[in-house]
Specification:
344 residues, alpha/beta, Rossmann fold, 7-stranded mixed sheet, 11 helices, 40% helix, disordered N terminus, LacI family transcriptional regulator, SBP_2_dom, Peripla_BP_I, signal, carbohydrate binding
Length: 344
């Protein structure tokens, strides 16, 4: 979902912004339905406000669903301008810090973002709070997570325990398995890793023989999975903990001629992942609700700015998707969300 961008900047600020935003992805602005104004200088109770929404990275189906949810929420608010922007790689922590700092300098009223690194982004949250900017985290928070900064996210640890259960059930509770996490230091990665290993502890017949990071890159996931399959040709199961990892692992299994012979439990629901489920390459997916994260996160920020609401963190839930429930209407609402039929 794309909206026209409208800027009224004189030359020098425009050049400065161009330098600050170098290396970032697309910028989308949803203009308010009425009124004008910016930053903290307006009447927050009913005047125009600006909310910046920043994912871990642009260019991934998962984050585009977050974008759709936030855009939907903004379109239903009055006098709310939402600006969406992000770096192009989830590993670009410095780039995200710079981008968020720029939004703080601009004086937005609210900042909704997914932290690429739980510890490194703490300083950004504190900087925004000190500037009287309301902050909401989506998908991934910081360490520590301030009490006045709600987090709209999956219960990653509990869901990853269930991913281990799915793998064990598919393998009859025994076999050699591999784990493809994505980014060490990312709160979501670390929670999923802890949950998966917690779940594995219930199944002594499952032997974790390999663990390699994908760096949230499908090509890297393909390469490390190929390396794992070469080193351990008797592997019978793989758990990949995010979209790029699942796509790369599935490609490696297919190229090895082992599709359907190695059980893959994945995370997220990009089109290539869904096709993998349909084709029998991927056994099951742990599907989050990124649309809801964007939708509820944007609305929370508006309420915090407008009326000083004390917003609690929220588990946005998961859906376990297999070939036999792909056409269920509730599953389809999560897989193909829209503003007309939101999975809320």
């Amino acid at each position: 979902m794309r909206r026209e961008i409208s800027y009224k900047l004189i030359l020098v600020p425009a050049l400065l912004l161009a330098l600050l935003l170098a290396g970032c992805g697309q910028v989308t602005t949803v203009q308010p339905s009425a009124g004008t104004g910016s930053g903290n200088g307006g009447n927050a109770a009913n005047g125009p406000i600006k909310i910046a929404v920043v994912p871990k990275a642009v260019g991934f189906d998962y984050w585009e669903q977050v974008h759709k949810g936030a855009t939907c929420a903004a379109s239903k608010q009055k006098n709310v301008t939402m600006q969406w922007d992000g770096v192009t790689a989830e590993t670009d922590v410095t780039g995200q810090v710079n981008l968020l700092t720029n939004f703080i300098t601009q004086g937005v009223n609210g900042l909704v973002y997914a932290a690429t690194d739980a510890k490194a982004l703490t300083q950004v949250t504190n900087q925004a709070l000190n500037a009287k900017i309301k902050v909401v985290n989506i998908d991934s928070g910081t360490e520590p997570q301030p009490a006045n900064v709600p987090l709209f996210a999956t219960d990653n640890q509990a869901s990853a325990v269930k991913a281990a259960d799915l793998l064990a059930q598919s393998l009859g509770g025994k076999g050699k398995i591999a784990f493809i996490p994505f980014l060490a230091g990312s709160a979501t990665n670390d929670q999923r890793a802890a949950g998966f290993k917690q779940g594995l502890a219930k199944y002594p017949g499952l032997q974790l023989v390999a663990e390699q990071y994908s760096q949230s890159d499908a090509n890297t996931a393909l390469r490390v999975t190929q390396d794992i399959l070469s080193a351990h040709p008797d592997i019978t199961g793989i758990f990949a903990a995010n979209e790029p990892g699942v796509i790369g692992a599935a490609q490696a299994v297919q190229r090895a001629g082992k599709a359907g012979k190695i059980v893959i439990i994945g995370w997220d629901a990009a089109p290539d992942e869904i096709k993998g489920v349909q084709d029998g390459v991927i056994s099951a997916l742990v599907v989050q609700n990124p649309f809801k994260m964007g939708y509820d996160g944007l609305n929370a920020a508006v309420q915090m700015v407008r009326i000083g609401a004390q917003v609690k963190s929220e588990d946005t839930g998961v859906t376990f998707v297999k070939k036999d429930n792909l056409n269920d209407p509730k599953v389809q609402a999560v897989l193909k969300p829209s503003c007309e039929n939101p999975p809320l």
